[in-house]
Fold this protein.
Amino acid sequence: MNQKPFCAIDIGSFSIKGLVADINSKKGSVDIVHMAEASSHGVRRGIIFDVEDAAHAIAGVLSQCEEAAKQEINEVSVGIGGPCLETRFAKGTIIVSRPDEQIGEDDVRRVQETIHTTPGPQNRTILHVIPRYYCIDEVDRVKTSPVDMQGARLSLEATVVDLFTQASLNLSKTFAVVGVQTSVPVANILAVSKAFISKRDREQGVAVIEIGAETTSLAVFEDEELLHLAVVPLGSQNITNDIANALKIHFDTAERIKIAFGSAIEAKVNRKEEIDLSQFIEGEDEIVSRRHVAEIIEARASEILGFVNDELKKMDRAGKLPAGAYVYGGGSQLPYFTQLMKHELKLSARYLTFDQYSRYFDSHIGISYAGVCGLLVWHLDSIMGERRPMGQSGMAGWLKKFIGNFLP
């Protein structure tokens, strides 16, 4: 490769995943060079709590990426999740600078910057500022750029995604130990939603749900705006724990049973089906009902989805999202999970796919890599300037044409 490779790292509670890609501006192509994965250490519920352990795990993934890319990687794009993420609404207002009250690009930049300087909750660091609409003289609302419009006052109402400051500091410390620079971290579920949920669905109203190991994340969109982001501190590991406790077996054995025989809906399992524990535990002669295992799974999965529905109720969107709900993450791969979602959320439900970008995400790339794949698409869009850090200018027109080769 003649150019520096793009590298993304997704920090999860169960595993840390990496992606390295060659973005060729001359050919207008993206080649996925390697996907890497390692067990998480020093991470709990998506938050780094042990810097040294997390750094060691991340370094292992990075080493695999460097070996595949055949060159050193000095900068990475990082995706984060966990209950440290929260959303809130914020408003900033400025006086238009020109005497003739014509709004310029500098005015737009200044009103965006006011969101960062407006006092917010203590111990929170702003991660994303997502404009909802601009307001001119507190009367006219516009969703597009207000440049060249007339007005004395310009306001911006935005959705802010922020995170616990200590989580941000631990992230910075960890990558300092690893010895690589990071771009501004990205909320995983936001990157995935923007990449793999169609604009039409985000306009109509849609929920995106990630069932992780220790957390379940939710993002809700309507009129293409992010309305809400929430994290429930329960995930697929809680299902495994329930099986282990009920059957009096080790957690690892319970995980294997869940994967091999699990079902998200008890009624879908024949009452006569049984699981011989001897195939998992040497010397064990107990036989357990497969339907009983499904009963355990359904109870906990329903509880998790109940908490998701509670978040939708807070917004008055429970059962009221025309595009329904998309789900991804390891915990959602149980048979009949989308049917359970449909029942619990009273919404249409389906699995998230890479269909929009199938031209360079091959079929062998599992949906468990949605986080790093979303970061790659986010990076491609940021080159165009759509999601650049506020205050930075976009790239030249030729580069927009280049990006057009990737976008659906």
